[in-house]
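Students often ask why inverse folding is considered easier than folding. One informal answer: many sequences map to the same fold, so there is more than one right answer. In these notes we will look at a single instance of the problem. The structure comes first.
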């Protein structure tokens, strides 16, 4: 990935959400913004349990053990290159996810995209996985 021709920058809302996540995820998001060919905006960072319960009730999330609770996850929306407006498009999200994976690789930080989950496709979701939960 060689980076974008256009230099993107985060909105104040995205900056505010980035302040709520762990520094390593913030760094990956900032690097991904430099690498991506598709601009994106952050729409969620760290959550409290009341907000997580509400999202589970609404069917937007499926777990009360979200990585959002510890600041190890964020949600984003790609911006349509033509209109500049947020668009939940898998094609655009794949471009952004590729930038996140490359940024994670460059910064030695594991990244997992919810768009690759088999049981619940969560296209806006990026997280640093809980490596302690892994078994060999």
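Output (designed amino acids):
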């Amino acid at each position: 990935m060689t980076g974008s021709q256009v230099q993107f920058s985060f909105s104040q809302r995205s900056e505010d959400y980035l302040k709520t996540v762990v520094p390593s995820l913030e760094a990956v998001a900032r690097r991904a913004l430099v690498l991506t060919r598709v601009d994106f905006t952050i729409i969620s960072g760290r959550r409290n349990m009341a907000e997580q319960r509400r999202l589970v009730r609404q069917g937007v999330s499926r777990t009360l053990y979200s990585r959002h609770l510890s600041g190890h996850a964020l949600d984003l929306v790609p911006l349509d290159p033509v209109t500049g407006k947020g668009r939940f498009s898998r094609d655009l999200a794949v471009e952004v996810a590729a930038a996140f994976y490359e940024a994670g690789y460059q910064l030695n930080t594991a990244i997992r995209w919810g768009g690759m989950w088999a049981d619940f496709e969560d296209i806006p979701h990026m997280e640093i996985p809980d490596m302690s939960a892994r078994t060999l």
